[in-house]
Known about the structure:
This protein is an alpha/beta fold. The chain is 34% helix and 31% strand. The strands form 4 sheets. Strands 2-1-3-4-5 form a 5-stranded parallel sheet, with helices on both faces. Helix 4 (90-94) links the parallel strand 4 (79-84) and strand 5 (100-103).
Amino acid sequence: MRILICDDDTLIIEQLQKYIESYFESNHLKCPELVSFTSGESLLADKNEKDIVFLDIEMPGMNGIYVGNELKKANKNVLIFVVTSYSEYLDEAMRFHVFRYLSKPLDKQRFFRNMKDALTYYNSITTKIPVETKQGVYSFPASQIIAIEAQERKVIVHTARQDFDSIHNMDYWLEHLPKNSFFQTHRSFIVNFEHIVDFDHSTIHLSNQQITAYLTRRKYSSFKNAYLLYLESMR
């Protein structure tokens, strides 16, 4: 993983570096590569991977709005934190799906919460989960899994690409899927929050229009709360 910081204020760069290093140290994690830039031009000139970017808006030359759009064109999965004291740019920043908006001066506790959300989301789209079938083993990011469905003696893994007949049971999938983005709504279904279109007290419609998951009434409240927390973490 590479984390990049782009700001024309070196004091902000130093503060972000300290916060990032402190976050990883406090969670007993190895700190990834940190790279800093003082202009949008130098950031875009960097040809290496860009996983998480902390981006200032008001900079000489290329502003952060233009740079953010270019970053998303090159890699739609890059997670961008907009770091600025100018809230009027928020609407423009949202157009390129900024992951979070951090206002200056930076609040350390809020930064830590957002960093946790970013790493959780990053892992969900990059960490590959093996799906073992009788024909072989297929691996893809958890974010591509729409739902796990139990049909009689079969367990089907519905993905954006195709369906797979897993040799593992529902308990296995409950243990191995990310807890923050998957929920067992019924004994026959585990759904991915990312792919939910809408739901009522008994059914959940998923992004693949052919899949409708069951939702038991006794789980409705806990499911709704978990889903709303997930949406809040994605803002």
